[in-house]
Design brief:
By secondary structure, this protein is α/β, with parallel strands linked by helices. Helices cover about 45% and strands about 15% of the residues. It has a ten-stranded parallel beta sheet with strand order 9-8-7-4-3-2-1-12-10-11. The longest helix has 16 residues.
Length: about 325
Amino acid sequence: MRFSLRLNNDLTLHEYTTLAQAAEAAGFDQFWVSNDLFLRSALALLPAIAQATTRLEVGTGILNPYTMHPAEMAMYAATMDELTGCRFNLGLAAGARDFLQWVGLEQSAPLATVRETVQAVRRLLAGETVEMEGRALRWNDEAYLRFRAPRVTPIYVGATGPKMLQLCGEVADGALPLLFPPEHYFGVLPHIEAGMAQRPESLAPLDLAACIWVSLSDDRQAARRVLAQKIAYYGYTLNPLILDQLGLTRADFAGVERAMTVERDEEKAIGLVDERMLRIGVVGGPGDVIERLEPLVAAGATHLSFGPPLGPNPLEAVRLLGQVVAHFRR
């Protein structure tokens, strides 16, 4: 079994290093930090996190090829592997369309763009000159790294829709599908497996991370509130495939979206998050998490990944999640 933590890029540097050290002590294998627009830069946070730990792998969860060029992704991956002793994982995806529109960027040809990005980054890290005439990337014979990368960094692809999930199975080293709710694992798996049927033999077995949201605390109401806050911020951007699992539609989030983006009234938005929406994640204690995840592990899940908000006190939540890690390691 493999275990990872995923955090948004909205905490202080000190909080990240403290949480990473706690995660390492609790037996976690990986630590991912998002790079969402207008929050702290994961590109700066991750080196500090890596230097505060000794064993923990660190990763970007995620970069997108619209706000960061694939050539710069390869540069960053190779440099991070130099810094960390090859403890870096490159997480990339097409990004959230709504967030890209904040800065006037269109999410054009997302499937082709992600496919070509994975191919280009992998080849650059392998020391190749990458000439491309793709749909998204058009490079000439000057496209190559001017230094030797320590290795071909593992590339994890984030996905929610069926076609992107299939692409994960086909081309990625690892997959970061959002399982909202956790039981969505059984909806995701067939799409991943369809892609794996086209997977080149040269690639290692896929690391499929079952990515869920949790909010753990002895204070259940406090745990509920911080998960509702996270859902209010991200819920209306979720793929219909995810919303279908909850019996929801984008229209159900109209009031939440308006409160967050038009009225800018976060408290009102949190109050509009109902119990169906809360099923996106898991609220409570270690037992609640174990109960929701036992069927996934029984079905063959080998990587459990716990995402934000973790809890009203993230450090306490990491320690509680340590009990979940210990349970499944047994």
